[in-house]
Amino acid sequence: MLRNSLNIAWRIINQLIRDRRTIGLLVIAPLLIASIVGVSIPEKSILDYVAPAILAMLILFFGFILTGINFLRERSQGTLERLMASPVSRLDIVGGYMFGFLLFALLQMLIIFFYMVYVLDVSFQGELWQIIVFEIIIGLGSVCLGTFISTFAKNEFQITQFIPIIVLPQMFLCGLLWPVSQMPDYLQWIAKFLPLTYGVDGMRAMMLHGQNLLEIGKEVGILAAFTVVFIGLASLTLRRGSST
Questions:
Q1: Which residues of 51-74 are buried (b: 16+ CB within 10 A; e: fewer)?
Q2: Is pLDDT above 60 for 200?
Q3: N or C: which end of the chain has fewer CB within 10 A?
Q4: Which domain covers residue 146, as residue numbers?
């Protein structure tokens, strides 16, 4: 199983690396967004407070877009159908795409994080490597979410229409703009079922309060559970996606 997934991932990586325009956008887009954040929030104390939530949000957003559009392109070009016809399980296929896209999602994640820390001078309290590990967990979930949602889209326009349905509600309800505890009870209940809520809580706990991965075990476990669920759902809906 792992060999099949790695072979698929290697093909995805080579394909994206040869696309210079895509690589350029992968680098420029997060730098542009991070720069806008830094300019629009000149007060350092406020930037330090909102930066963990913005990091989690951008990881979800870019991971979702990157995976959703490129996975859909694989379907439209017939590559996915050929894989489905080969003696490879659907879980192998989903795993391969997940590993392949995750590498580029991590590239964007690292660009955003180090730009905010070393260029925008965002302060953080936790250990650097543990923060990066937690960001990887968020990125893994966003890649799996993008893979799952892309199976329901027939073209790139429909993928973009999923942004206000899947991504934007999480941005408004994750605690980025105001604390979840101050929201109406029904919105607090909805927020409990959104991955970004736990991504923001975990990032804030680590970067603002210096907590480690063990201390935010709840957030890590829930995000890992979301990832497993998204992988399973993507595998189950893969045949439907390849036939649309």
A1: bbbbbbbbbbbbbbbbbbbbbbeb
A2: yes
A3: N
A4: 2-243
